[in-house]
Automatic annotation (TrEMBL):
Alphabetically ordered keywords of this record: ATP-binding, Nucleotide-binding, Transferase
Protein name: ABC transporter ATP-binding protein
Top-level taxon of origin: Bacteria
Family: Belongs to the protein kinase superfamily. ADCK protein kinase family.
Domain Protein kinase: start-end pairs: 124-436
UniProt GO MF annotations: ATP binding; protein kinase activity
Amino acid sequence: MTEIPRKAVQRTAKLASLPLGVAGRVVGGWGKRLTGRAADEVNAEVTAKTAEQVFAVLGQLKGGAMKFGQALSVFEAAVPDELAAPYREALTKLQTAAPPMPARTTHRVLAEQLGASWTKRFMEFDDDPAASASIGQVHRAVWHDGRDVAVKVQYPGADEALRADLKQLLRFSRLLQAIMPGTDVRPLLEELRDRYLEELDYRDEAANQRTFAKAFENDDHVLVPRVVASSPKVMVTEWTSGVGLSTIIREGSVEDRDLAGQRLAEFHFSAPSRSGLLHADPHPGNFMLGDDGRLRVIDFGAVARLPDGLPKTLGLMTRLALDGRSADLVELLRTENFIREGMSLHGEDVLGYLAPFVEPLRTESFHFTRRWLQSQAERVGDLRSPDSQTGRSLNLPPQYLLIHRVTLGATGILCQLDAHVNAREIVARWQPGFDD
Protein backbone atom coordinates (compact mmCIF):
# COMPACT_ATOMS: atom_id res chain seq x y z
CA MET A 1 0.00 0.00 0.00
CA THR A 2 1.57 3.30 -1.07
CA GLU A 3 -1.16 5.72 -0.08
CA ILE A 4 -4.27 5.97 2.05
CA PRO A 5 -7.36 4.62 0.24
CA ARG A 6 -8.89 7.87 -1.03
CA LYS A 7 -12.23 7.12 -2.64
CA ALA A 8 -15.18 7.65 -0.34
CA VAL A 9 -16.95 4.52 -1.59
CA GLN A 10 -13.83 2.44 -0.92
CA ARG A 11 -13.39 3.80 2.61
CA THR A 12 -17.11 3.55 3.40
CA ALA A 13 -17.04 -0.11 2.42
CA LYS A 14 -14.16 -0.75 4.81
CA LEU A 15 -15.92 1.06 7.67
CA ALA A 16 -19.10 -0.89 6.94
CA SER A 17 -17.11 -4.11 7.18
CA LEU A 18 -16.73 -3.61 10.93
CA PRO A 19 -20.37 -4.25 11.96
CA LEU A 20 -20.78 -6.82 9.18
CA GLY A 21 -17.68 -8.64 10.34
CA VAL A 22 -18.93 -8.68 13.91
CA ALA A 23 -22.27 -10.11 12.79
CA GLY A 24 -20.55 -12.80 10.76
CA ARG A 25 -18.41 -13.87 13.67
CA VAL A 26 -21.41 -14.02 16.00
CA VAL A 27 -23.22 -16.32 13.56
CA GLY A 28 -20.07 -18.39 13.22
CA GLY A 29 -19.82 -18.54 17.00
CA TRP A 30 -23.31 -19.99 17.30
CA GLY A 31 -22.33 -22.62 14.75
CA LYS A 32 -19.30 -23.63 16.80
CA ARG A 33 -21.44 -23.88 19.92
CA LEU A 34 -23.75 -26.27 18.11
CA THR A 35 -20.73 -28.48 17.43
CA GLY A 36 -20.00 -28.66 21.15
CA ARG A 37 -17.41 -25.95 21.87
CA ALA A 38 -17.77 -24.10 25.19
CA ALA A 39 -19.61 -20.78 25.11
CA ASP A 40 -16.84 -18.93 26.99
CA GLU A 41 -14.20 -20.21 24.61
CA VAL A 42 -16.23 -19.18 21.57
CA ASN A 43 -17.03 -15.73 23.01
CA ALA A 44 -13.35 -15.10 23.74
CA GLU A 45 -12.43 -16.05 20.20
CA VAL A 46 -15.16 -13.82 18.71
CA THR A 47 -14.17 -10.75 20.73
CA ALA A 48 -10.47 -11.26 20.03
CA LYS A 49 -11.04 -11.48 16.27
CA THR A 50 -13.34 -8.46 16.36
CA ALA A 51 -10.67 -6.43 18.18
CA GLU A 52 -8.11 -7.49 15.58
CA GLN A 53 -10.41 -6.33 12.80
CA VAL A 54 -11.02 -2.97 14.46
CA PHE A 55 -7.27 -2.33 14.54
CA ALA A 56 -6.66 -3.66 11.03
CA VAL A 57 -9.44 -1.64 9.37
CA LEU A 58 -9.02 1.63 11.27
CA GLY A 59 -5.23 1.38 11.14
CA GLN A 60 -5.18 0.80 7.39
CA LEU A 61 -7.65 3.59 6.69
CA LYS A 62 -5.80 6.03 8.98
CA GLY A 63 -7.41 9.46 8.55
CA GLY A 64 -10.64 10.21 10.40
CA ALA A 65 -11.39 6.53 10.95
CA MET A 66 -8.19 6.10 12.90
CA LYS A 67 -8.78 9.31 14.84
CA PHE A 68 -12.16 7.95 15.87
CA GLY A 69 -10.43 4.82 17.12
CA GLN A 70 -7.96 6.95 19.06
CA ALA A 71 -10.85 8.76 20.72
CA LEU A 72 -12.39 5.42 21.67
CA SER A 73 -9.08 4.37 23.21
CA VAL A 74 -9.51 7.15 25.78
CA PHE A 75 -13.22 6.67 26.44
CA GLU A 76 -12.88 2.93 27.04
CA ALA A 77 -12.06 3.83 30.66
CA ALA A 78 -15.75 4.70 31.11
CA VAL A 79 -16.97 1.35 29.72
CA PRO A 80 -17.40 -1.71 31.99
CA ASP A 81 -14.30 -3.91 31.92
CA GLU A 82 -16.09 -6.97 30.59
CA LEU A 83 -17.03 -4.99 27.47
CA ALA A 84 -13.91 -2.89 27.03
CA ALA A 85 -11.16 -5.36 27.87
CA PRO A 86 -11.11 -7.26 24.53
CA TYR A 87 -10.73 -4.01 22.61
CA ARG A 88 -8.34 -2.16 24.93
CA GLU A 89 -5.13 -3.54 23.47
CA ALA A 90 -6.26 -3.16 19.85
CA LEU A 91 -7.40 0.43 20.39
CA THR A 92 -4.22 1.29 22.28
CA LYS A 93 -2.21 0.29 19.21
CA LEU A 94 -3.97 3.04 17.28
CA GLN A 95 -2.40 5.67 19.56
CA THR A 96 1.08 5.22 18.15
CA ALA A 97 1.07 2.70 15.31
CA ALA A 98 -0.36 2.08 11.86
CA PRO A 99 0.91 0.33 8.71
CA PRO A 100 3.75 2.53 7.31
CA MET A 101 4.08 3.85 3.77
CA PRO A 102 7.04 2.70 1.63
CA ALA A 103 10.31 4.66 1.72
CA ARG A 104 9.94 5.75 -1.92
CA THR A 105 6.60 7.41 -1.07
CA THR A 106 8.14 9.14 1.93
CA HIS A 107 11.01 10.42 -0.23
CA ARG A 108 8.58 11.73 -2.82
CA VAL A 109 6.69 13.76 -0.22
CA LEU A 110 9.96 15.12 1.22
CA ALA A 111 11.14 16.19 -2.23
CA GLU A 112 7.80 17.90 -2.95
CA GLN A 113 7.82 19.75 0.37
CA LEU A 114 11.52 20.45 1.07
CA GLY A 115 12.91 20.52 -2.47
CA ALA A 116 14.72 18.05 -4.71
CA SER A 117 17.90 18.39 -2.63
CA TRP A 118 16.10 17.61 0.63
CA THR A 119 18.75 15.07 1.61
CA LYS A 120 21.28 17.90 2.07
CA ARG A 121 19.20 19.20 4.97
CA PHE A 122 19.96 16.06 6.94
CA MET A 123 23.17 14.41 8.08
CA GLU A 124 21.18 11.19 8.58
CA PHE A 125 17.62 10.06 7.84
CA ASP A 126 16.07 6.77 8.97
CA ASP A 127 13.67 5.42 6.35
CA ASP A 128 11.95 3.19 8.91
CA PRO A 129 9.29 5.26 10.71
CA ALA A 130 9.66 5.61 14.46
CA ALA A 131 5.91 6.08 14.84
CA SER A 132 2.82 6.11 12.63
CA ALA A 133 -0.51 7.75 13.33
CA SER A 134 -3.71 8.97 11.71
CA ILE A 135 -2.54 11.35 8.96
CA GLY A 136 1.25 11.10 9.07
CA GLN A 137 4.26 9.12 10.22
CA VAL A 138 7.39 10.20 12.08
CA HIS A 139 11.00 9.47 11.14
CA ARG A 140 14.08 9.95 13.24
CA ALA A 141 16.86 11.96 11.62
CA VAL A 142 19.87 14.21 12.27
CA TRP A 143 19.53 17.80 11.04
CA HIS A 144 22.40 19.37 9.10
CA ASP A 145 23.58 21.17 12.27
CA GLY A 146 23.84 17.91 14.23
CA ARG A 147 20.58 18.09 16.16
CA ASP A 148 18.50 14.93 16.58
CA VAL A 149 15.12 15.66 15.00
CA ALA A 150 11.71 14.13 14.39
CA VAL A 151 10.40 14.46 10.83
CA LYS A 152 6.63 14.16 10.46
CA VAL A 153 5.54 13.31 6.91
CA GLN A 154 1.88 13.45 5.89
CA TYR A 155 0.43 10.50 4.02
CA PRO A 156 -0.47 11.24 0.39
CA GLY A 157 -4.24 11.42 0.14
CA ALA A 158 -4.70 12.22 3.83
CA ASP A 159 -6.79 15.31 3.09
CA GLU A 160 -9.30 13.49 0.88
CA ALA A 161 -9.44 10.51 3.23
CA LEU A 162 -9.97 12.64 6.33
CA ARG A 163 -12.87 14.54 4.77
CA ALA A 164 -14.50 11.32 3.57
CA ASP A 165 -14.14 9.66 6.97
CA LEU A 166 -15.47 12.57 8.98
CA LYS A 167 -18.55 12.60 6.80
CA GLN A 168 -19.10 8.90 7.33
CA LEU A 169 -18.36 8.97 11.06
CA LEU A 170 -21.40 11.16 11.68
CA ARG A 171 -23.18 7.81 11.56
CA PHE A 172 -21.53 6.94 14.89
CA SER A 173 -23.43 9.71 16.69
CA ARG A 174 -25.40 7.27 18.86
CA LEU A 175 -22.18 6.00 20.44
CA LEU A 176 -21.09 9.51 21.40
CA GLN A 177 -24.60 10.31 22.62
CA ALA A 178 -24.39 7.39 25.03
CA ILE A 179 -21.03 8.61 26.30
CA MET A 180 -22.19 12.20 26.76
CA PRO A 181 -25.92 12.39 27.53
CA GLY A 182 -27.30 15.93 27.56
CA THR A 183 -24.99 16.92 24.72
CA ASP A 184 -26.21 17.76 21.24
CA VAL A 185 -23.95 15.36 19.37
CA ARG A 186 -24.04 16.81 15.86
CA PRO A 187 -22.42 20.15 16.80
CA LEU A 188 -19.80 18.17 18.71
CA LEU A 189 -18.99 16.07 15.65
CA GLU A 190 -18.89 19.20 13.51
CA GLU A 191 -16.43 20.71 15.98
CA LEU A 192 -14.31 17.56 15.79
CA ARG A 193 -14.39 17.80 12.01
CA ASP A 194 -13.21 21.41 12.05
CA ARG A 195 -10.35 20.65 14.45
CA TYR A 196 -9.21 17.60 12.50
CA LEU A 197 -9.26 19.45 9.19
CA GLU A 198 -7.00 22.10 10.72
CA GLU A 199 -4.37 19.39 11.19
CA LEU A 200 -3.89 18.97 7.44
CA ASP A 201 -1.57 22.01 7.16
CA TYR A 202 1.53 21.36 9.21
CA ARG A 203 2.44 25.05 9.06
CA ASP A 204 -0.49 25.73 11.39
CA GLU A 205 0.63 22.95 13.70
CA ALA A 206 4.16 24.35 13.69
CA ALA A 207 2.86 27.77 14.71
CA ASN A 208 0.86 26.18 17.54
CA GLN A 209 3.86 24.19 18.72
CA ARG A 210 6.11 27.26 18.70
CA THR A 211 3.58 29.02 20.95
CA PHE A 212 3.47 26.10 23.39
CA ALA A 213 7.27 25.69 23.33
CA LYS A 214 7.77 29.35 24.21
CA ALA A 215 5.14 29.23 26.98
CA PHE A 216 6.75 26.16 28.59
CA GLU A 217 10.39 27.02 27.89
CA ASN A 218 12.63 25.82 30.73
CA ASP A 219 9.58 24.54 32.63
CA ASP A 220 10.31 22.05 35.41
CA HIS A 221 7.30 19.85 34.65
CA VAL A 222 6.56 20.03 30.90
CA LEU A 223 8.77 19.86 27.79
CA VAL A 224 7.51 20.85 24.33
CA PRO A 225 10.02 20.17 21.49
CA ARG A 226 11.12 23.18 19.45
CA VAL A 227 10.15 23.43 15.77
CA VAL A 228 13.10 23.29 13.36
CA ALA A 229 11.34 23.62 9.97
CA SER A 230 7.88 23.26 8.48
CA SER A 231 5.94 23.08 5.22
CA PRO A 232 2.31 22.15 4.45
CA LYS A 233 2.93 18.39 4.64
CA VAL A 234 6.28 18.01 6.44
CA MET A 235 7.31 19.26 9.88
CA VAL A 236 10.70 18.93 11.57
CA THR A 237 11.03 19.28 15.35
CA GLU A 238 13.73 18.55 17.90
CA TRP A 239 13.69 14.91 18.93
CA THR A 240 12.44 14.04 22.39
CA SER A 241 12.04 10.67 24.07
CA GLY A 242 10.39 9.13 27.09
CA VAL A 243 8.06 6.35 28.16
CA GLY A 244 4.70 6.68 26.42
CA LEU A 245 1.65 6.97 28.61
CA SER A 246 0.16 3.91 26.92
CA THR A 247 3.12 1.91 28.26
CA ILE A 248 2.75 3.43 31.74
CA ILE A 249 -0.97 2.61 31.66
CA ARG A 250 -0.17 -0.99 30.80
CA GLU A 251 2.83 -1.69 33.04
CA GLY A 252 3.97 1.44 34.88
CA SER A 253 4.78 1.63 38.58
CA VAL A 254 2.46 3.40 41.02
CA GLU A 255 4.97 6.25 41.25
CA ASP A 256 5.14 6.71 37.46
CA ARG A 257 1.36 6.54 37.15
CA ASP A 258 0.86 9.22 39.79
CA LEU A 259 3.59 11.45 38.37
CA ALA A 260 2.28 11.15 34.79
CA GLY A 261 -1.26 11.92 35.97
CA GLN A 262 -0.13 14.93 37.99
CA ARG A 263 1.88 16.36 35.08
CA LEU A 264 -0.95 15.77 32.60
CA ALA A 265 -3.50 17.53 34.81
CA GLU A 266 -1.13 20.46 35.32
CA PHE A 267 -0.56 20.78 31.58
CA HIS A 268 -4.26 20.57 30.72
CA PHE A 269 -5.34 23.29 33.16
CA SER A 270 -2.31 25.60 32.90
CA ALA A 271 -1.77 25.70 29.12
CA PRO A 272 -4.67 28.09 28.28
CA SER A 273 -3.50 30.68 30.83
CA ARG A 274 0.15 30.34 29.82
CA SER A 275 -0.16 30.04 26.05
CA GLY A 276 -3.70 31.09 25.13
CA LEU A 277 -4.16 27.63 23.60
CA LEU A 278 -5.62 24.30 24.74
CA HIS A 279 -4.05 21.09 23.42
CA ALA A 280 -7.13 19.46 21.89
CA ASP A 281 -5.96 15.94 21.04
CA PRO A 282 -5.79 14.15 24.40
CA HIS A 283 -4.82 10.52 23.96
CA PRO A 284 -1.88 8.66 25.51
CA GLY A 285 0.08 8.53 22.24
CA ASN A 286 0.69 12.28 22.47
CA PHE A 287 2.37 12.21 25.88
CA MET A 288 5.57 10.69 27.27
CA LEU A 289 7.24 10.80 30.69
CA GLY A 290 10.96 11.53 30.56
CA ASP A 291 13.74 10.37 32.86
CA ASP A 292 13.82 13.88 34.34
CA GLY A 293 10.16 13.61 35.44
CA ARG A 294 8.94 16.07 32.83
CA LEU A 295 5.93 15.37 30.62
CA ARG A 296 6.80 15.41 26.92
CA VAL A 297 3.91 16.74 24.80
CA ILE A 298 3.68 16.30 21.03
CA ASP A 299 1.13 16.74 18.21
CA PHE A 300 -0.29 20.26 18.26
CA GLY A 301 -2.40 20.02 15.10
CA ALA A 302 -5.69 20.43 16.99
CA VAL A 303 -5.96 23.28 19.48
CA ALA A 304 -8.61 25.52 21.00
CA ARG A 305 -7.81 29.21 20.98
CA LEU A 306 -8.48 30.62 24.46
CA PRO A 307 -6.69 34.00 24.63
CA ASP A 308 -8.19 34.71 28.06
CA GLY A 309 -7.52 31.22 29.42
CA LEU A 310 -10.22 28.77 30.43
CA PRO A 311 -13.67 30.43 30.68
CA LYS A 312 -14.39 31.95 34.08
CA THR A 313 -17.94 30.55 33.93
CA LEU A 314 -16.60 27.00 34.27
CA GLY A 315 -14.73 27.92 37.43
CA LEU A 316 -17.81 29.58 38.92
CA MET A 317 -19.97 26.54 38.11
CA THR A 318 -17.43 24.20 39.65
CA ARG A 319 -17.19 26.24 42.84
CA LEU A 320 -20.99 26.52 43.24
CA ALA A 321 -21.42 22.77 42.74
CA LEU A 322 -18.60 22.06 45.20
CA ASP A 323 -20.16 24.35 47.82
CA GLY A 324 -23.68 22.97 47.31
CA ARG A 325 -25.17 26.34 46.33
CA SER A 326 -27.95 24.88 44.21
CA ALA A 327 -30.04 28.06 43.67
CA ASP A 328 -27.03 30.12 42.55
CA LEU A 329 -25.89 27.23 40.35
CA VAL A 330 -29.22 27.02 38.52
CA GLU A 331 -29.29 30.78 38.03
CA LEU A 332 -25.79 30.74 36.52
CA LEU A 333 -26.58 27.76 34.29
CA ARG A 334 -29.73 29.42 33.00
CA THR A 335 -27.95 32.74 32.37
CA GLU A 336 -25.16 31.02 30.44
CA ASN A 337 -27.59 28.86 28.38
CA PHE A 338 -26.62 25.53 29.99
CA ILE A 339 -30.31 24.84 30.66
CA ARG A 340 -32.44 24.19 27.61
CA GLU A 341 -35.04 26.84 26.91
CA GLY A 342 -38.40 26.09 28.50
CA MET A 343 -36.98 23.49 30.89
CA SER A 344 -37.93 23.68 34.57
CA LEU A 345 -35.31 22.17 36.87
CA HIS A 346 -35.06 21.91 40.65
CA GLY A 347 -31.82 23.16 42.12
CA GLU A 348 -31.23 20.01 44.14
CA ASP A 349 -31.65 17.85 41.03
CA VAL A 350 -29.05 19.89 39.15
CA LEU A 351 -26.71 19.76 42.12
CA GLY A 352 -27.23 15.99 42.40
CA TYR A 353 -26.29 15.61 38.74
CA LEU A 354 -23.17 17.80 38.85
CA ALA A 355 -21.84 17.18 42.38
CA PRO A 356 -20.25 13.77 41.64
CA PHE A 357 -18.27 15.31 38.76
CA VAL A 358 -16.52 17.69 41.17
CA GLU A 359 -15.75 14.90 43.64
CA PRO A 360 -12.02 14.99 42.67
CA LEU A 361 -11.85 18.50 44.17
CA ARG A 362 -13.21 17.60 47.60
CA THR A 363 -9.94 16.16 48.88
CA GLU A 364 -6.29 17.14 48.70
CA SER A 365 -5.53 14.13 46.50
CA PHE A 366 -8.03 12.15 44.40
CA HIS A 367 -7.62 8.61 43.09
CA PHE A 368 -8.80 8.54 39.44
CA THR A 369 -9.93 5.00 38.62
CA ARG A 370 -11.76 3.25 35.81
CA ARG A 371 -14.40 2.20 38.33
CA TRP A 372 -15.06 5.82 39.33
CA LEU A 373 -15.45 6.90 35.70
CA GLN A 374 -17.61 3.87 34.93
CA SER A 375 -19.90 4.75 37.83
CA GLN A 376 -20.34 8.26 36.44
CA ALA A 377 -21.11 6.92 32.97
CA GLU A 378 -23.60 4.43 34.38
CA ARG A 379 -25.24 7.11 36.54
CA VAL A 380 -25.91 9.56 33.71
CA GLY A 381 -26.42 6.91 31.04
CA ASP A 382 -29.18 4.92 32.76
CA LEU A 383 -32.36 6.27 31.17
CA ARG A 384 -34.32 5.28 34.28
CA SER A 385 -32.22 7.33 36.70
CA PRO A 386 -33.18 10.87 37.84
CA ASP A 387 -29.65 12.06 37.01
CA SER A 388 -30.04 10.92 33.42
CA GLN A 389 -33.33 12.80 33.12
CA THR A 390 -31.70 15.93 34.54
CA GLY A 391 -28.79 15.57 32.13
CA ARG A 392 -31.12 15.50 29.14
CA SER A 393 -32.58 18.84 30.28
CA LEU A 394 -29.15 20.45 30.26
CA ASN A 395 -27.37 21.89 27.24
CA LEU A 396 -23.74 22.36 26.33
CA PRO A 397 -23.31 25.70 24.49
CA PRO A 398 -21.15 25.44 21.35
CA GLN A 399 -18.28 27.52 22.79
CA TYR A 400 -17.77 24.90 25.51
CA LEU A 401 -17.91 21.80 23.31
CA LEU A 402 -14.20 21.50 22.64
CA ILE A 403 -13.19 22.26 26.24
CA HIS A 404 -15.66 19.65 27.50
CA ARG A 405 -14.37 17.01 25.09
CA VAL A 406 -10.72 17.66 25.94
CA THR A 407 -11.37 17.67 29.69
CA LEU A 408 -13.31 14.41 29.41
CA GLY A 409 -10.49 12.90 27.35
CA ALA A 410 -7.84 14.00 29.85
CA THR A 411 -9.94 12.60 32.70
CA GLY A 412 -10.20 9.30 30.82
CA ILE A 413 -6.39 9.12 30.64
CA LEU A 414 -6.09 9.86 34.38
CA CYS A 415 -8.46 6.97 35.06
CA GLN A 416 -6.54 4.67 32.73
CA LEU A 417 -3.39 5.63 34.65
CA ASP A 418 -5.13 4.84 37.95
CA ALA A 419 -3.41 7.99 39.20
CA HIS A 420 -3.53 9.93 42.46
CA VAL A 421 -3.66 13.63 41.52
CA ASN A 422 -3.74 16.86 43.54
CA ALA A 423 -6.58 18.07 41.37
CA ARG A 424 -7.94 20.72 43.73
CA GLU A 425 -4.61 22.52 43.99
CA ILE A 426 -4.23 22.54 40.20
CA VAL A 427 -7.77 23.79 39.54
CA ALA A 428 -7.52 26.45 42.25
CA ARG A 429 -4.35 27.81 40.67
CA TRP A 430 -5.25 27.69 36.97
CA GLN A 431 -9.07 27.71 36.57
CA PRO A 432 -10.37 31.31 36.47
CA GLY A 433 -13.48 31.85 38.63
CA PHE A 434 -12.88 28.92 40.97
CA ASP A 435 -11.52 31.02 43.85
CA ASP A 436 -13.50 34.21 43.12
